[in-house]
Structure formats: C-alpha cells, structure tokens
Write a structure and sequence with these properties.
Layout: E1 4-5, H1 7-20, E2 25-33, E3 37-45, E4 52-57, E5 60-65, H2 66-72, E6 76-82, E7 85-91, E8 97-98, E9 105-106
Parallel strand pairs: 1-6, 2-5
Antiparallel strand pairs: 2-3, 4-5, 6-7, 8-9
Length: 107
C-alpha cells in the first residue's frame, strides 16, 4: 500500500499539528458524493482507530480507513499555495474522471 506525501504536504501537516497542540496525524479517506461519485475527506486525527491503515511518511502519520484504501492506493498528497488559496491536492492514479468543478471523481 502506498500513499505518499510531498515535502510541502508533510511540512504543512507537521506545522498544523504543532500549532494545534495535539493529534496523531492526517486522516485521509473518500466519501460517496458529488456529481462524479466520490470526494476526498481530509481531517486531522486525534486517535488511531481499529479500522485504520497506518502509513508513516517523512515523520508524519497518515491514517486511511480500510474502506477508502482501494480508491486512493498510490495517491500522492501535495500542499499548494496559489495566491491567497492553499489546499491539499491529490494525484490519484485510480481516477478515471472528474466533475467540472473538481470536487468529485470517479474510479
């Protein structure tokens, strides 16, 4: 199983967890929604759940629920800033199509 973080994503997660003062890592998953089928769910995790797959990357813990793993296997997570906007971006090799607004995808 492979989910990878760019250095920018790893640094953003580390700095946010430090600023927040607690948490074990980044929780990454998908939910059924949108016009194309699935959307990414990104949260900071305060605990490791029994259903989590734990991935260590660049000093950061990424937690993925087992149900989402098949949809995001091989994904690279980046953190980008464009003007005043900043967000995590996903390079997912499983994506077959995306909706026009970029909020959801199909696999």
């Amino acid at each position: 199983m492979s989910i990878s973080l760019t250095p920018a994503a790893a640094e953003r997660i580390k700095s946010f967890l430090l600023k927040r003062g607690h948490g074990v890592g980044l929780r990454l998953g998908v939910k059924k929604t949108g016009c194309s089928g699935y959307a990414y769910v990104v949260n900071y995790a305060d605990e490791v759940k029994e259903s989590d797959v734990v991935i260590e990357q660049q000093g950061v813990t990424v937690l993925v629920d087992k149900g989402s793993l098949g949809f995001i296997e091989g994904t690279e997570v980046d953190f980008v800033k464009q003007g005043l906007n900043e967000a995590f971006k996903f390079r997912n090799p499983n994506v077959k199509g995306e909706c026009g607004c970029g909020e959801s995808f199909t696999v």
